[in-house]
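Notebook entry, structure prediction.
Reason for the run: the old model in the group folder had no record of what sequence produced it. Starting over properly, with the input documented here first.
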Amino acid sequence: MPATEAILLAGGLGTRLRSAVPDLPKCMAPVNNQPFLYYVMQWLQQQGIRRFIFSLGYKHEVIIEWLQTHYPQLDKVYAIETTPLGTGGAIQLAGSKAITKDVVVVNGDTLFNININQLYQFYQQQQANCALALKPMTHFSRYGTVALNNQQRITAFTEKQYCDAGLINGGVYLLKMQRFLSLGLPATFSFEKDYLEAFTNTEKITGLAMHDYFIDIGIPEDYNKAQHDLQP
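New structure, fully documented this time:
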């Protein structure tokens, strides 16, 4: 059975976007008269996601109001941080509300238009605890890179530095949720540093290179690019 439940991480402050989008959660930044979240939702629904867990923090009421207005029938729950928990703490809090064992996790400020079923099949075949969708990129310095072995297990994450070509973490995960919750991680932690990097050798964390459209609106340059690329 394919994955039907997703955690959408939308609690970020969007500090680097302030010059372009003052005073809104990052996922609510307008792109062609729609919040960026609209495009993420369209993709997830097209991919068969039926239940949504929204991980919210900064200005969560703005996001909730928009969702209640535009998606009144959506099967949705909210996990609201009262203090910032980091990406890992946010996933842990939201994951406690999950009802399926294999949960898709995505970032509300990134769109990586992958086929989720393809990632899910890979995750099942690998019997992975976590599978990452990886985006091949060339001539970049904004992202760290991900190294894979011949079995497509992730062996290392490298820091941000200039790279001619490499795979980056595309911010779409399939996660064996009960396994993740059983690790006894603290309430506040980084998913990238304290789970993915820290457990590379002990948890089965795998990666699949996927060549689909990718954009991360975290900086004004790419936010402006989204205005050209995305149409409602």
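Summary: The mean pLDDT is 94.
The old model has been moved to the deprecated folder.
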